[in-house]
Target: Metal-dependent hydrolase, endonuclease/exonuclease/phosphatase family
Amino acid sequence: MRVAVRAAAVTGALAAALSVLPTTAFAAGSPGAVTSVSAVPGAQSGEIKVSWRASGARTDKFRVETALTPFGSSNDGRGASTVTVSGSKRSVTLSADTVRKAGAAPATGNHLYVRVVPVDQTRSGARKGKASALVATTSRAVPPPTTGSPLRIASYNIRSAKYDGDDRRPWSQRASGVAADILTVQPGIVAIQEASPGRFGALRQTESLQAALIRADPAMARYTLTRSSVYVAPGTPHGSQAARLLYDSSRYQLLTPCTDTTVLNGAALDYSNTCSFDLPIAPGDSPIWQRSAAYAEFMDLATGKTFLAVSAHLDYRHSKKASLEAKYNELRRVQAATIWANMNLIRKPGQPVIVAGDFNASQTDKGGNAPHDYLVSQGFYDAAGAERQVDLDLPSLNHFDTTLKADPQGYARRVDQILVYGTVGSKTFAQVVKQKDPARNSDHNMVYADVVLPTF
Model:
């Protein structure tokens, strides 16, 4: 009995003594924190170099954790992977093969989110110390060909005039700004989305865009839409017909016969399905969900070489319910597959193909970026995997917000994409955007890329 009482007293005294010790005493055995980290493109194409600072106290190894989406205390990002290095290391170069397996090879245009975690391996298991902050980078880009046919390709969702009642700036106020954006960048080809062929007043939105471009460039009047009228007969149930292609007629020649009318019983009707094709809809969808893509074949007047271009605006639906989100993501993948199948029906051997537009999906979507990933799997190169990237820290869908929030890791959500088949590498991928702008010309930023098409 006395022994039991004494033991209790000692235990109580010890507990009292421990209660007044600094709480850091309990963490004395934890690995030293990683106090800073950086991730940059490596020396060779496809590589990423990660460097960090840490005391190395009680650290047997470091875990370099990566994912395609941001993640927190547990590496729960999409496509999560880990590379483990010795506790004596303070940097590591992730090989091109490691980066490829993690989902961020140069052709994907994807970036990797990275953090470093110190680990102490003990008999009872691994103890982790304080991890670094989360950073992100793309891998070292593949250099574009040194010879060939340079092409600046742009994609621009100009926001349909049918939403004028909902937007702070109607199309009549925005048209000149959209034209100015295009003329400032001077792309050879522009994939346009939401250029409605419906009439808003005297002109269709397609026609008013063409008119705005002529007013802005009266001496040259270079930019021409391949089509301006509707794709289906009036009265036909159908969804968006607003994907269009615009080209610089001083540098490129339109080879595909794109006509705005259909001759029926000797009469020219104001519609045509030329230079367009329908994209699939989901089972159970009504025809109003049917979207059309625009395509055309062009020739570079300087080299005589030809290529195909497609403008697409994929299904916009998303859901917080995982199963429904997966359904919509799969629909967009099938729409991308339909684009590629249609181009394979008409393209010549070795002929480059450009697919650009509003994919309504991005790398940072938890459900994935299925249309993009499908095209990359077929040999397309995402032009965002460029030697020079401009303003990718701002979202490409700006919602007409006056001030855009810069992404802390430098890569904001980007639904507007440009992919090229038949070449590799990209010199520049850029957004035309100001972080603060009270008078934006659209709810999307124009994006553009400088690529080099083969001339052999």
